[in-house]
Amino acid sequence: MMFYLTTLNLVRFLREDAPTVTENETDKDKRAAFEAWGHGDFLCRNYVLNGLDNSLYNVYSSMTIAKLLWESLEKKYKTEGARLKKFIVGKSLDYKMVDSKSVMSQVQEMQLILHDLHAENMEMSESFQVAAVIEKLPPLWKDFKNYLKHKRKEMRLEDLIVKLRIEEDNRKLSESKGTKRPIEDGSNLVEPNASKGKRKFKGKDQGKGKKFKGTCYNCGIQITWPKTVDVQRKPRRNNKGKM
Asked: Of 118, 131, 125, 139, which is closest to residue 160 (Cα–Cα)?
């Protein structure tokens, strides 16, 4: 609103009082100046009222001149501005970074808070800003935080942001290399000691399977077979008909 009134050359009516002119004033110049001031004040006052919210128009429309209207608005909103400063300071002190979010996104949130502090005319040195961002780093960045704290050379805020971005990229790269792709199925797994579908024996029992007795399905003669003999192989018959 101040900028808009400046472009219209009406800002002076926010600070000046009306010229004193009596009802019986006969000086035409004084009467003309008073009327010109009244016209300018009328425009300035209604431009300000027009910029207010509809719910506030009836509250402030009773102000007779622009100066009283402007002073009343300043009392209201400057008090709110003081409360806003306390809110921003509290927000900056309570802000904490967490491990579940990207560090760079949280650094950007910190920059917005610092910008709001500057907008409220609460200036802070760049060294203090750098130290504040370092102190807010999340718990998993404890080692890197200590490394930054022990650096003797002063850093600018831009240099700190570059270092944090590089460190976060390196951490993401190392995590991607360290992860293993899970095995979805066991279709390509090969059991040990399995070759061509034959079972292998180890140690002393290799080639010495347990024996069992049975009857030949061709001749009905009792026979004894090792367990390792191929079951599809038929026993040989000698000339006397014995196995």
From this structure: 131
Average pLDDT of span 66-86: 77
Q: Which residues pair with 198 in a beta bridge?
A: 195
**What CA–CA distance (Å, rounded) separates 116 from 122?**
9
The CA-atom distances, in angstroms, between 131 and each of 65, 128, 134 are 50, 5, 5
pLDDT band at 49; cut points 50, 70, 90? very high
Output the pLDDT for position 190.
Answer: 45
- How many CB atoms are closer than 10 A to CB 228? 13
With 0-12 / 13-18 / 19 or more C-beta atoms within 10 angstroms meaning exposed / middle / buried, residue 111 is middle
- What pLDDT, on a 0 to 100 scale, did the predictor assign at position 224? 66
Cα gap 33→53, rounded to integer Å? 33
Confidence at 225, pLDDT banded by 50, 70, 90:
low
Determine the Cα–Cα distance for residues 240 and 38; give it in Å rounded to an integer.
Answer: 146
- Global model pTM greater than 0.85: no
Q: Are 160 and 148 in contact (CB under 8 A)?
A: yes
* CB-based contact 5:14 (threshold 8 Å): yes
More confident: 215 or 57: 57
pLDDT of residue 181: 42
